[in-house]
Amino acid sequence: MAILRNNSPAFVKAEWRVILVFLVFSALVNVSDGQAKNSCLDCHSALPEPLGVTQDTFAGDIHSQKGLSCVSCHGGDATSDEPDQAMSRKAGWKGKIDRKQVPQLCGSCHSDPAYIRQFNPSLRTDQLDQYRTSVHGKRFAAGDGKVAVCTDCHSVHDLRAPSDPRSTVNPVNVAMTCSRCHSDANYMKEYSIPTDQFARYSQSVHHDALAVRGDLSAPTCTTCHGNHGAVPPGVDKVQNVCSTCHVFQAQMYEQSLHKKAFQARSLPGCVVCHSNHAITHPTDAKLGTGPGATCTECHTPGDKCDQARAELLGGLNRLDASIRHADEVVALAESSGMEVSEARLGQNQARDALTKARVTVHSFRQDLMDQDIQAGLNIAAKDLEAGQKAMAEYKHRRIGLGVSLLAIGTVLVSLRLFIKKIES
Amino acid sequence: MSRLRDVSSWVEERLQWNDLIAPLRKKTVPLHRLSYWYFLGGITLFLFMIQVLTGILLLLYYRPGANEAFESIQYIMTQVQFGWLVRSIHSWSANLMIFTAFAHMFSVLFLKAYRKPRELTWLTGVILLLLLLGFGFSGYLLPWNTLAFFATKVGTEITGQVPIVGNPSMVFLRGGEEVTGATLTRFFGFHVAVLPGLTTLLILLHLLLVQRQGMSVPPSVEAEWAAQPSARREMKFFPNFALRELMAWYVALGALGALAAIFPWNLGVKADPFAPAPAGIKPEWYFLFMFQTLKLIPAKVWFVDGEVLGILAFGAIGLLWILLPFFASAKPSLTKTWITGLAGFALAYITGMSVYGYLAK
Predict the structure, then answer these.
(1) B29: which strand partners?
(2) Does B319 fall in a domain?
(3) Is some CB atom of chain B closer than 8 A to the CB atom of A412?
(4) Which residues span the domain enclosing B313?
(5) What is the CATH number of the domain that holds B128?
(6) List of chain A residues whose C-beta atoms are within 8 Å of the C-beta of residue B254
(7) What is the pLDDT of residues A411-420, one digit of tens each?
(8) CATH topology for A304-398?
(9) Could you tell me if A334 and A344 are in contact, meaning their C-beta atoms sit under 8 angstroms apart?
(10) Mean pLDDT of A304-332
(11) A396 touches chain B (CB under 8 A)
């Protein structure tokens, strides 16, 4: 499909003198309004939706900012005030772009590296190819008109760069954009897939990190499913998806017996214990037997695995309790005015060891866990000792102060008696 | 005892010691209901001596430099035997010294001890107070902790607001455009060399003037004594007053020890020049009244920058304050009225603004 671009090859190859004459001429012609005429907006800004596009709306569109105009996609002659001429088929006017044509139309520029490089050399140009591999793209090719095309996610006429917080595909807005279709039970009825993903994701630790804490590196729908090539990760590929961020957990999981067991039963790795969209902040309770416990969902109480679970949990609880106890003593010493900054620093290292142990849990190997737990316990014990020493020193200081004040008091009384004696 | 006398006569033969202390033996101190105010100057001197002594001890371990200062004080506080006590006494003593110096100044004002012929004693005393504030400002940065870093940044920025000489002064104080390790080294130099030298000289001059002119008697007491000459009383400086002063020093020592042991001076967190300034940062309490005043002045007063106006006003007031006795009227009653009124206002203003500044967020 042809598309009108602002730089024809002839123009690019023109002599400098010709360019100069052209620029001067253009400047003279456009001196009254300062920019190229766009008669489309003159009319369409006054029309109601869906035909209405205001100057303000289009001015915020990334294409408009890069110098493209209505004609770039819709064709026609925007320099003419005559509707018949402006929307003349002879002038290449295409009218409303048919939904079936959208991916190809967008791809005519976005799949052309030479063209895209002029505007953004780092912008990828494989979106259309990726789209064709996606569930959306495959169904679209099969004639499903309901699946998402470019404009459904990116919007149209007010399309913004993904880095713009107002963009529908900005990381903060992606989940909301996907949910427009995927949370609509009526719209999704014929596809027989759940529609509670957004509701569940909204309760997740990932959503909290991204939307509440503003961590733009936190995952949203496209992080795990891909964007233009969006597909649900296969059961055996889930671990690969999670491991792009959770590298160390994945390394530990690789060494675990669970990996083989899950693969043998076609269970989706990480998702088995953590779920998918509704991933909550993991706590040690997952290894327990009470509310929030995960292991007991598969393992029988008292069996070999259950005993291993109890040992893993015991190690974590032991280290956690040691850190808390040392924290209390160090805090008491600090509030008593003692200098315990080194112990405070040590406590951070102990907490790091606990975090590391919680990562090592994914190996489900007691020997590896013991190394981390013991390292943390050693640090916490050292900090506890430092805190206790500081408190002992604090008590010594009080005694020393009492003795000193007694000595000073004695000198004062003696001086007073001496003065009395010499003045009597 | 005979051996002690031998030593004494040996020293006497070589130094004529008795001639040197003869004036002290003759010196007397007026005795009246307000005599206890005379102790404040001595207590300030005692605290200065404590500062010198503890400062020298801290110097044995302190290392000036952005990468070492904080750690060296941390080492003093945790590893050096009684290091915590020396450092805490140094910090508490510094604050108490500035407090007693202020109290001494206001007692001189209210007792009218600045009157002729003691104008120079007042002059040296106020300059000494300014030097002590300089000690406080320079010493505050030396631990290189977060509060000290940003307080110094704000403090030197205020200096930079002074027209014409402000920016060069700020660059000189900072050793560059920003507060860096160069500032720390510079402040260390001021704190342990320049200021102690100047202060010691001025203290000697101040004491010499006090010695030459004797203790001032408040006009109200003088009037009472003029009406009833038999009421005039005095005590020998040595040993009677000196022993009482010694008692006051012991009390100050006990208070210092208690404060240092019960409330050891906090070291804080090491300064990070790239971290944002902590919220609600404030200077030490003795600069708080000026800081709060500058905060309250509108950004623009007519066409003049509010902060610049405030700094210039404080500068002008400080200069007039130093020269206060020279404005004393020939009529003692008139002097009594306006200088005492001014002192009362200044005391109320400093106290009020300091409390306001402390409580303000």
Answers:
(1) B235
(2) yes
(3) yes
(4) 27-270+278-359
(5) 1.20.810.10
(6) 404-405, 408-409
(7) 999 999 999 9
(8) Butyryl-CoA Dehydrogenase, subunit A; domain 3 (1.20.140)
(9) yes
(10) 95
(11) no
Taking CA–CA distances from A338, the nearest residue in chain B reads B264
Q: Which residue in chain B is spatially nearest to A396 when comparing CA positions?
A: B261
The total number of structural domains in chain B stands at 1
Spell out the domain ranges in chain A.
233-280, 304-398
Q: What is the CA radius of gyration of chain B?
A: 23
The two three-digit tokens of residue B233, written as one number? 């009383």
**Does some domain include residue B5?**
no
Inside any domain, residue B94: yes
Tell me the two tokens of residue A263: 């693969």
What are B218-275's pLDDT values in tens digits? 988 999 999 999 989 999 988 899 999 999 999 999 999 999 998 888 888 899 988 8
For B232, residues 6+ apart whose C-beta sits below 8 A from its C-beta are B225
Structure letter (DSSP) for residue A210: I
Q: Report the distance separating Cα A45 and Cα A43, nearest Å.
A: 6
Q: Look up the pTM and report it.
A: 0.67
| Contact assessment for residue B108 and residue B122, using Cβ atoms and an 8 Å cutoff | yes
Pick from A342, A398, A412: CB nearest B250: A412
Contacts of B82 (CB under 8 A, 6+ apart): none
Angle, alpha carbons B183-B185-B189 (nearest 5°): 110
Q: What is the pLDDT of residue A159?
A: 93
> Which residues are CB-contacts of A388 (< 8 A; sequence separation ≥ 6)?
A329
Residue B20 lies in a domain: no
Q: In b/e form, how buried is each residue of B313-352, taking b as 16+ CB within 10 angstroms?
A: ebeeeeeebbebbeebeeeeeebbeebeeebeebbeebee
Q: What is the ipTM, given to two decimal places?
A: 0.84
Nearest-CA neighbor of A292 among A303, A306, A282, A307?
Answer: A282
Name B270's bridge partners.
B145
Binning pLDDT at 50, 70 and 90, where does residue A24 land?
Answer: very low
Residue B27: Cβ-neighbour burial (10 angstroms; 0-12, 13-18, 19+): middle
Q: Is the pLDDT of residue A112 over 90?
A: yes
Which H helix or E strand runs over B300?
strand B300-301
Tokens of A46: 């006054």
